[in-house]
Specification:
- The chain is of the alpha/beta class and 807 residues long.
- The protein folds into five domains: 2-84; 89-192, Beta Barrel (OB fold (Dihydrolipoamide Acetyltransferase, E2P)), CATH 2.40.50.140; 194-227 and 403-465, no CATH class; 516-549; 559-806, 4-Layer Sandwich (Metallo-beta-lactamase, Chain A).
- 51% of the residues lie in helices and 16% in strands.
- The chain has 27 helices and 23 strands.
- The strands form four sheets. It has an eight-stranded mixed beta sheet with strand order 14-13-12-11-10-9-22-23, with helices on one face.
- Strand 18 (707-711), helix 24 and strand 19 (730-732) form a beta-alpha-beta unit.
- The model has no long low-confidence stretch (mean pLDDT 84).
Length: 807
């Protein structure tokens, strides 16, 4: 009982010492809870009042309860103002009028999309996600702030409770009222004016300055890191940075604001400006940079915290970082009360809280072995990584194990990239947009352009190094720790466990402080050469340990066929057991099939077969050719003019990969494998490509010893029954298990023991169909499907077949 009384007394003293912190926290909680029913707010407010009153802090309790309820009411009003304009838009109604483009259009899997704000007529002021299918073209050079004439149909996504990703809730968090499926888009030639228009013009000059002299890929990365514009970053690159734990660098965050201040403060100090002038100037820069870079929740949080710290510096008062964090929570939630459930908001605040709590102790521990700047950087990285790990697992189902070393190695590169990028943004405001500028402006612009070019020369290798680092860590097998779906209770439990471990470590460290100090003193007395040698040896041992942990597995020693789980698409890998391997198709590009190949020990490919022109078959082969040495490509474009397929052929030619066209009747040998190509039939000279490429997909029998495997891409019975079929041991079911009336006849001729269906879960085509499943069940003893079983691996050793599933 005495122990409980002591804890309550300490809590009461803390409340009395930090009344402003508690008041801000209560207001933030009220704003965040405004998205739930008002009666719950009342109950929570009353509970807070009772709890605080029990600590003998009734006046503070009354104030906090009042602020909590006031926050709930204010948040409700703010939500009404956000949602109000969209109430006039009914689902499935037609909308035609003018709108302002709020972000640059970005490609999607089946078209493109961009955020717009309705400027005229019904729903004026509502934010909509304008989506265009592949036939709809956005105006050339559509820039943020441009006025567009849109015509389309409104659709409101329904919230689906219980699903991992609620798309309707996601749109509401962004303040989006509905989707607009547009049928026509036209630029009116006008732009928005006022402060927003001025920021648009500044942003345009910044974009041009950042991109000058860089390749499109590097320019896209720099614009993402400095301005938060990631729409031009291709999905493969984005996925690499995500897998390496570096995705936060492509979205502007508090780190950008910190680096901006770190760049500006010394320059202003060198000008011998008074402290309050320096603080005001840096605050003005932050106030300009935040909206220029998109004003996302993380950037808003950093801007508010930076402004609070600068205000304390200008007034010569001690700054409280916890007070600044709570103030930032209040401001961001006042702007959008739904921001609290956004993963980016949660990760941003968790990272800062972790840095505030863990960095001092980590810095003290690391400073014994590292220089102070390095110790500071590593401590901040470790603290942020640990603090965000449970939330990453909750929202994304995995944690990048390589994230910590990747971020530590990226530390020396990030700051120079950001500073050079910010310098280019500033210089871009001095470069005249028109060559017919007045002489003085032209002279200033020429100097700014020359300096900008020099900054670009320095920037290019740094960005290339960061991209190479992300790619290297993303390619490490086992770099992602997949976790089962976590509940909020488990996330809370994880943070409690982390807190207990941190407190225990701190207590042990305090007890061992004399010993640690003596060891540090003894270390410093050692000759410099001995210390350097010891650090190098430890670093080498750590590198070897890391390399061994993430080393790719060796290729299998027996014939192995892998029906890869890559979603709605085809990718089949055959390894002969002696080091040779062949890949039939690469699935869609977002499946990143090359990583699946790396994970099973493929370091080179002897054969790649592109069975026919189809995105879900050839899309992933681009990256395969880019990242895995390939000896031979068998292509079956069959005269297609599809630009993506022609690009695949061009990539093979550019890399010197031998290329042949698929021809029925040809036999290839790859290691121990014999590949007999049965189709397609030869294409007549001048024959146009077919409208449906599925029937002319490559059909082949892959053999090793007495084992035969039937592969037929998307070709179905109407095409393959004309081929000389024979008994096989295993087969891939054609066209993801689509309806095929002739399948029973095909199965009678093939008589396989194992059949695998490569199909995506919850696909929109109804694959595999009940008729196909019934036919397979009647004729094949063992049927597998990747949507339920994951990757299906068939191993043949001493003429014995065994099957493993990986789900």
């Amino acid at each position: 009982m005495q122990r409980v009384t002591a804890v309550l007394s300490q809590a009461r003293d803390l409340v009395c010492r930090r009344p402003y912190h508690l008041a801000l926290g209560s207001l933030a909680c009220g704003l965040g809870c405004s998205t739930v029913a008002s009666d719950l707010r009342a109950v929570a407010g009353a509970a807070a009042l009772v709890a605080l009153a029990s600590l003998r802090a009734a006046p503070i309790g009354l104030l906090c309860a009042s602020l909590f309820l006031a926050g709930g009411i204010a948040g409700g009003q703010r939500l009404h103002s956000i949602d109000g304009p969209g109430h006039a838009l009914r689902s499935e109604s037609r909308l035609a009028g003018r709108a302002i483009l709020l972000e640059k259009p970005r490609p999607t899997r089946f078209g493109s999309q961009a955020l717009v704000r309705v400027a005229t007529g019904r729903g004026r002021g509502a934010r909509l996600l304008a989506r265009g299918e592949r036939g709809v073209r956005w105006p050339t050079g559509a820039e943020v702030g441009a006025e567009l004439a849109l015509d389309g149909r409104v659709r409101r996504p329904r919230s689906r409770r219980g699903e991992r990703f609620d798309y309707g809730a996601y749109l509401r968090r962004r303040g989006v009222a509905a989707e607009l499926w547009v049928t026509s888009i036209r630029a009116t030639g006008r732009r928005r004016g006022g402060v927003a228009g001025a920021l648009d013009a500044m942003r345009g000059r910044a974009e041009r300055a950042l991109s000058a002299g860089l390749t499109p890929r590097k320019a896209a990365l720099v614009r993402g890191m400095v301005l938060g514009q990631d729409e031009l970053i291709d999905e493969a690159t984005r996925d690499d940075w995500r897998a390496a734990g570096l995705a936060h660098l492509l979205a502007v965050s508090g780190q950008n604001v910190m680096l901006l201040a770190a760049l500006a403060v010394p320059l202003l100090a060198a000008a011998r400006l008074p402290t309050w002038t320096r603080a005001a100037a840096v605050a003005a820069l932050i106030a300009l940079y935040v909206p220029l870079a998109g004003a996302g929740p993380s950037l808003q949080r950093a801007g508010v915290m930076g402004a609070a710290s600068l205000a304390a510096m200008g007034l010569a008062r001690p700054a409280s970082r916890w007070y600044a964090l709570l103030l930032a929570a209040c401001v961001t939630l006042a702007l959008n009360p739904r921001a609290g459930v956004d993963p980016g908001w949660q990760l941003s605040f968790a990272a800062v809280a972790g840095i505030l709590l863990l960095t001092p102790g980590l810095r003290r521990a690391l400073s014994r072995a590292l220089p102070r700047p390095a110790a500071e950087g590593v401590a901040v990285t470790v603290a942020a990584t640990l603090a965000t790990a449970p939330l990453l697992a909750y929202h994304f189902g995995s944690v990048p194990l390589v994230g910590l070393p990747a971020n530590v190695l990226a530390l020396p590169l990030v700051a120079p990239v950001m500073w050079l990028g910010m310098i280019r943004v500033a210089l871009g405001q001095l470069i005249p947009a028109s060559p017919a500028a007045e002489p003085l402006a032209s002279a200033i612009g020429s100097v700014a352009g020359a300096v900008n070019d020099l900054a670009g020369i320095a920037l290019a290798p740094l960005v290339a190094a960061l991209a190479a680092l992300a790619r290297a860590f993303a390619d490490l097998p086992g770099g992602q720790l997949a976790l089962p779906a976590l509940t909020p209770a488990l996330v809370a439990g994880a943070y409690v466990a982390m807190a207990v471990l941190v407190l225990a470590a701190a207590r042990l460290t305090r007890g061992a402080e004399p010993t640690l100090q003596a060891a540090a003193a003894a270390w410093r007395r050692r000759p410099r050469g001995h210390r350097v040698s010891a650090v190098c040896a430890l670093s080498g041992a750590g590198a070897l340990l890391l390399a061994s942990a993430f080393t790719s597995p060796s290729p299998p020693r027996a014939l192995t066929v892998s029906f890869l789980d890559i979603g709605q698409g085809d990718a089949t890998l055959i390894q002969d057991g002696a080091g040779a391997s062949a890949l039939f198709d690469g699935g869609p590009p977002e499946a990143r099939v090359y990583r699946r190949l790396r994970a099973v020990g493929v370091s080179r490919l002897d054969l790649v077969v592109s069975t026919h022109q189809s995105r879900d078959h050839q899309g992933g082969l681009h990256e395969v050719l880019q990242r895995i040495p390939t000896r031979l490509v068998v292509e079956n474009g069959y005269g297609t003019t599809d630009p993506d397929y022609r690009r695949l052929i061009a990539e093979a030619n550019a890399r010197g990969v031998q290329r042949i066209a698929a021809r029925g009747g040809e036999t290839l040998r790859v290691g121990r494998l014999t590949i007999q190509i049965l189709g397609p039939p030869s294409r007549a000279l001048g024959e146009p490509p077919p409208e449906d490429p599925n029937p002319i997909g490559v059909a082949a029998i892959v053999s090793e010893g007495s084992f035969d495997l039937w592969l037929s891409a998307d070709a179905e019975s109407d095409a393959i029954l004309h081929y000389p079929l024979r008994k096989v041991e295993a087969m891939k079911v054609s066209h993801h298990g689509s309806r095929d009336p002739g399948l029973p006849q095909v199965l009678r001729r093939l008589r396989p023991q194992v059949a695998a269906i490569e199909v995506g879960a919850h696909n929109g085509y109804g694959h595999p169909t009940p008729e196909t499943l019934a036919a397979l069940k009647a004729a094949v003893p063992h049927v597998y499907r990747t949507d339920r079983d994951g990757t299906v691996t068939l191993t043949v050793d001493d003429d014995r077949m065994s099957v493993d599933t990986h789900r």
